[in-house]
Structures are given as structure tokens and as C-alpha cells.
Amino acid sequence: MTITAPLDDLADILAARAVRSVYQPIVDLDSGRVVGVEALARGPEGSALERPDLLFAAARRHGLLAELDLACRAAAIRGALDAGLPRSIPLFVNIEPEVAHAPIDDELRRLVTRASDRLHVVVEVTERSLVHSPAELLAVLAAVRELGWGIALDDVGAEVESLALMPFVRPDVIKLDLRLVQEQADADIAAIVAAVTAEAERTGARVLAEGIETTGHRDAALSLGATLGQGWLFARPGPVPASLDGPATFVPVAAPASPQTSIVDAAAAGRPLRRSTKRLLLEMSWHLEREALNHGAATVVLSTFQTAERFTPATQRRYADLASRTAFVGALGTGIGRQPAPGVRGGSIAVDDPLVDEWVIAVVAPHFSAVLAARDLHDDGPDDERRFDAVLTYDRDRVLSAASSLMARITRRS
């Protein structure tokens, strides 16, 4: 559509499909070769909403964030297709956290179909997406992987949640927040580097540093373990660079399957279960809660309590304390609401969900992981003498599989 006058109204911009993309190169820090591009949204040139911050502020103000996000994704893919971006150069496309779960429209669906064998897309998300809508985002990420696309976790290090939730996203590319290369190193930055290094070693993810504006920033990025970078030192956002061709850079990281049936069986993985009493399991659960506190703010704790009645006032107080000192705490059970205790995320499980008969606590931190899972044998007699078949494992893949299954049952924020 030809635009004859500046479009300053967001509804008009969306109707005219006037949202556009500019592209910033991503380079290999050793060779300087362009190995990818990130699509960045802009409003119509010369309009009051050309700047992305003003464009998205207007969308939030008028309740059009989902529509704008879809338009930005469509513009990113359309522009790359029109420019003939080779499949060997990954295209990074952002998804706005609050609306990551929104269904795509017909136009974007057609573009995705066109792009399926012509572009290598890497979808960028932030930890805010997972904090807001865990189940929905995990479903989106699964669909992205089914398309053969990659996943990047953006702004890692900006908030502690990005480190805590990184294992659940299992990104192909870890994008370091620009402050890590632009500020002086301190204890917080050292902790971030350690967590990112551990994740990259475990999964093979590539580390990308943003905000590189000087050679000093580039040197800092290399010292942080980044092999990829982007920033004004290399190029400002603009048209898709000409004459791009090279070997494919990113190989998707295989995410562990999340069990949708028994977490006890998944955690045991064929090993014999231990017959345990409630008293012993309580002590073991409290031990894992203490471990969560010992491993710092970048920790996730997810637990099931069978029913809301078993999430007692004393347990609520403990979990509220955990939530105030760690990144994410969730509690699941039949009848458990959206926020069963201050700071605690909740989720009600269906009466036919296998978790109704299971008592689980999973702890995931950058350098620690454990899951205790137990199946109720429904004995008669005193409550403290109830017996369970239980398993305790520190195998990180099994822990993440169990924890991801629990995370997928957390109710989204209103």
C-alpha cells in the first residue's frame, strides 16, 4: 500500500500494514563475519510513532499489543523474504512477552509457510514470557521447535529470573544483556557468567553479547565467553545486508521431553522406588527447601501437594518466604488458586491428573538440581504414618523434565 501522508495513529498504521523492519547484523567475534541478522520493528518513517518505544507504548495504551506484535513478526519475515535473505543466515525475530501466547493471524500463518523452507528463523523470548504465562509459552516453544526453528533467550542477566528460567527455555542462543559488556565487572556479573557458562557447556548453546559499541566492549564480550556479538561497532540497524552467504551457524538444542503422565515414573526412569513414610518425606522436602535457599536468588522451586488442604498455613508461610528469596516458586494441587501464598504462583490440577496421587518437589538452580517425587499408597491409619513409593534424583535432565511438566501446569497471571 502506498502511503501518501504520515501515519500517526496506531490503528491506521496497523490497517495499512505500515509497520516495517530494519535489520542489525550479528557477527562472529573472532572473524567479524556476519552470521545472522536481528529484525527490529519501526513505525512509518517520519511519523510520530517511528521509534519502537513510542510504537509499543501506544499499543499498550490502546490495547493493541497483540495486533502490533503480530504485525512486527510479519514485517520481519516479509522483509527478509523480499530481500532474499539466505537460509544459511539465521533471522532473529522477537516475540513480545505479554502476548507470546496469542494465536497468529492468517497473514502471519501464510508468511510462516513461505518461510518454512526459505529462512532459518530464531525466535527471541525473554524470561518475562515464562513468568507471565508458563504453560502457554512452553507450548509456543514446542511449536517453534516443531517448525525446525531456533530459540534465543534475550536480556540474560538483566533480571535474576532470566538465569533461573534459562533451563526451562533451553535456548539455542543465550543473549547477554548489554550492561554486562558496558559496565565494570563485579560479583553479580561473575555469577551471571558462571551460570551462562554452565548452561552453554551442558547444552551447546551459543553465547551472544549485545550492545557492543567499542573495541573495549568487544574484548569484554570475548572475556565473558561470547562468540557472537551485535552492536554499533559492527553496524547500525538498516536494510538486510547485501551479499550474505555462509554456513549455517545454529543447531537447535534438543529439549528434554516433559512427562505429562507420572512424574514419579519419569524421575525413577526404571529404577526401583523406595517405600517411605510421610515423616521421612517431610524431612527430605524441607532439606530441598533449604537447598533452594542455599543456592541463591536464581533458583526455581516447584511443588505438588495433591490437594489445597495439604498446602497448610505453615507451608504457605514457608513458601512465601521461599518466594521472597528465590526467582520463582510454584505450588500445584486440586483447588489451589492462582496465588495461594504471597509471591507464590499456583495451579489447580484436574482430578484425573496423575499428580493427584503424587507429592513432588523440584529445585532447579544454575549449579544445582534435584527432584523428590512420591506416589501415595493411600494407607489407612494415622496421617503421619502414610506410606509412599518415592524416588530422589539429582540427574539434571530428569529433574528438568519433571520441573518443566510442573511449570506447564502453572496458571497464567491475570
UniProtKB/TrEMBL annotation:
It comes from the Bacteria. Residues 3-251 form the EAL domain. GO terms for molecular function: cyclic-guanylate-specific phosphodiesterase activity. Transmembrane segments: none annotated. SUPFAM superfamilies: EAL domain-like (SSF141868). InterPro entries: Cyclic-di-GMP_PDE-like, DICT_dom, EAL_dom, EAL_sf. This is EAL domain-containing protein. It comes from Actinomarinicola tropica. The lineage of its organism: Bacteria, Bacillati, Actinomycetota, Acidimicrobiia, Acidimicrobiales.
